[in-house]
Amino acid sequence: MANLLVTGGAGFIGGNFVHYWNARHPDARVVVLDALTYAGNRSTLEGSKAELVVGDIRDTALVEALLRDHEITTLVHFAAESHVDRSISGPDAFIDTNILGTNSLLKAARAVWLAGSGVPHRFHHISTDEVFGSLGPNDPAFSETTPYAPNSPYSASKAASDHLVRAYHHTFGLEVTTSNCSNNYGPYQYPEKLIPLFLLNALHGRNLPIYGDGMNVRDWLHVEDHCRGIEACLARGVPGETYNIGGGAELPNMTVIDRVCTEVDCAFAEVDGLAQRYPDAPAARGEPTASLKTFVTDRAGHDRRYAIDETKARAELGYAPAHTFEDGLQQTLRWYLDNEQWWRPLVGQVQA
Questions:
Q1: Strand arrangement, sheet containing 176-181
Q2: How far apart are CA 307 and CA 143, in angstroms?
Q3: Which fold has domain 4-184+223-247+302-322?
Q4: Percent above pLDDT 90 for the chain
């Protein structure tokens, strides 16, 4: 069984992947490298069997040492700055982490894995559908051959990192795969993203800020399905290839927001004690959560629609999402209600 190095493994998707991998591969050794920035939390790894190393992916010497000392043969690269709003207000961090950080990892992997006769290895890079830009209402979904057209500093930095990964394969022979995923949701997501932000705002009676007309469309992917797709890439992916991983739930933001509101209302009607725990929630007074909806000025450069064509992943990897959006959203809400000790310290850090 391969020894894994998981970058960004104390973050949202990386942390879920660590728990998923532990459950599916209990004998595998997992080392997590995470800088524990605002979106990385030690508590996300509680209950896992991973060894946490606190460090920066731009520290090439550290990465080389980890690869050698732990006999790592698979590197799964999640570590990234990923919030579009933050990239608009401060692009430099996205250049540093997403481009320079990825290059540092690639240099380390090349130095350790390709030295001498080389060793069997895999560098799997996690990317996003945002590198493809924005779709019109009748455009076909993004495929692996869709030209890149990033529209934000975040997506531009991820596009650059994708190109670096490809270049290290074609120039140096590094065995790489890349997956481009759609919008993830689920447990352990930092509450700056739409679903956890709106869930927690609803519990605290805070406004639900809706950009523009709320009709921007995204494909929603439960994080466990994303982990399943990554596992398939590692097991059956062809080095040098990219694979789109989607959730099969293309929805306008307004539909997602309305379903969040409905799920919160249902939870207050069904779960004893919620009104006492969250007295500021409209649902605690029998009022609709939807009363908190507030329209705000649209985000600069806001892409209108993303959609994923996952035909290649289904055909070549055997990938298929197991969660519908309805059951995934309900499970996510109940996880946040059951794990207040995880998100409570984070709420004060996020401004709606």
A1: 51-54, 30-34, 4-7, 74-77, 122-128, 176-181, 242-245
A2: 9
A3: Rossmann fold (3.40.50)
A4: 89
The residue extents of the domains of the chain are: 4-184+223-247+302-322
Strands (E), 212-346: 217-222, 242-245, 250-252, 293-296
Residue 84 has pLDDT above 90, yes or no: no
Give me the residues paired with residue 252 across strands. 217
**Which residue in 34, 130, 231, 310 is the catalytic one?**
130
- From the list 129, 224, 225, 303, the catalytic residue is 129
pLDDT digits (tens, 9 = 90+) for 310-332: 999 999 999 999 999 999 999 99
* 130 in catalytic set: yes
Tell me how far CA of residue 31 lies from CA of 73, 327, 329, in angstroms: 11, 31, 30
**Residue keyed to tokens 């999640």:** 78
Alpha-helical regions (H) of 47-83: 60-69
* Structural contact between residues 280 and 205, judged by C-beta atoms closer than 8 angstroms: yes
Catalytic residue among 20, 154, 168, 278: 154
Residue 85 is inside which H or E element, if any? Answer: helix 84-89
pLDDT per residue as tens digits for the range 264-300: 999 999 999 999 999 999 999 999 999 999 999 988 8
Q: How would you classify the pairing of strands 122-128 and 74-77?
A: parallel
154 belongs to the catalytic site:
yes
